[in-house]
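Q: Hi! First time doing this. I have a protein sequence and I read that you can turn it into a structure. Is that right? Here it is:
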Amino acid sequence: MRISKITAAVAFALAALTAFPLAVEAAGLKANIYMTQHKIPNGLSEGGLLGFVRSHNAKILRESSEEKLEERKFMAEMVVQFSSPPNDAEFHVKFFDIHDGARKYVEDMPVYIMDKKQKVYLQRVKLP
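A: Yes, that's right. Below is the predicted 3D structure, encoded as structure tokens:
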């Protein structure tokens, strides 16, 4: 099943969240994943969006600043750039906490695809 391969690839890539764009591959489909906490300017072309997130890629996500610890969240914008259109109805992004060494599952986020010919996707991310 193609969705499972995409899910595994994106989940593996997001586990590390390094300063460099993450590149993953599944069934011949490659993806670069960028995360930023900067405000993305309106009206950017696809190339402009990719240039912005490449230059503002987050190495570490910062928590929000709520007073109570339980209310804090990690918020970011995620851009996924596939090498070719995924040609599917959705892909899943799985998030893991790797702070203490071992991977700890945090959340699964389905991303639904409106245009199956599109290769670049922008998604807001909000993690507990």
